[in-house]
Amino acid sequence: MPDLLQYDFMQRALLAALLVGLTAPLVGVFLVQRRLSLIGDGIGHVALAGVAIGVLTGHQPVLTALVVAALAAVAIEVIRMRGGASGDVVLAIMFYGGIALGVVLMARAPAGGASLNSYLFGAITTTSPADLWTFIALATLVMVLTLWLRPWLFAVANDEEYCRSAGLPVLAINVLLAVLTAVTVVVSMRVVGLLLISALMIVPNAAAQPLARSFRTGLGMAVTMGLACSVGGVTASYYLDTPSGGTIVVLAVGLYAVVAVTAGLVRRLRNHRERHTLAHEHEHGPGCGHEAIPHGDHVDYLHDGHLHAPHHGHYDEHGPHAHTHATSQDHGHDHGLNHGSPDGRQGSPDHPIGRRHG
Are 28 and 202 in contact (CB under 8 A)? Predict the structure, then answer.
């Protein structure tokens, strides 16, 4: 690691990776909530046209890409909100048209092929000091606005209709999120590449979801994973002599795979233990050894101070012995609350108790 830091270009590369690791998951979490995971990819396609314009005109490609990407983001959100059934077709035309225009224009520039690859797949070692300062300013803007507007972004991402009826400016908030996505794409294009940046916005959030119990916790986990993948990917690419963008995304996807498999195994183990704990191994019936007590139109069996009633292969909990004289109406109520629960806990669609039939 110390030998890596002795080079100025690697210092800039690591700092740029740090910025990308912070901003990409921070904005991406709201795209995941709104099921717009591929919007960042589409904006990246259009941003390539802005890069090509900057290269051809001699302007800073980062700034021209930012302008084009921001305009495309506004257009995307307006089309998505008002485009109706044809909106997806219009967006597809915009995305493919943007990358096609970028390829054509870049071919007219000197050394167009090399420049094209560096922007499409990332070339972090070519980040100049001017690029870095621009990235720092843009990343700071994205982080400040996203954290400041987080309650509104979260509300709109979860229920647009309710927010609209409550008087929130839903269209303005969505447009702002689209513009923040565009800025994040531009910040990340040197590090990850325009074709891969969407992965760093989405994959860490997807990996954090099985582990998190709240939005705040999930966001913190996603940002931590994004930082680990971006900085770790740049470091690994230096020693392995591989493209930084691809290395970062491979690390992110690998991390997601590990989390998904581990979470699945833990969930299955927990469900197995819970089913084993809740299993009622004793069979109730005539001659079972427990006192039979009439209860409405059926017979309960007194077991460990509780009344158990056989019911289609499982047992309904009818409360402690003190409730022996419950009416038929009370019985129906208990049956709904304690369906299949030997210990009197309430069942729910997500709880194994509520699903134990037969």
Answer: yes
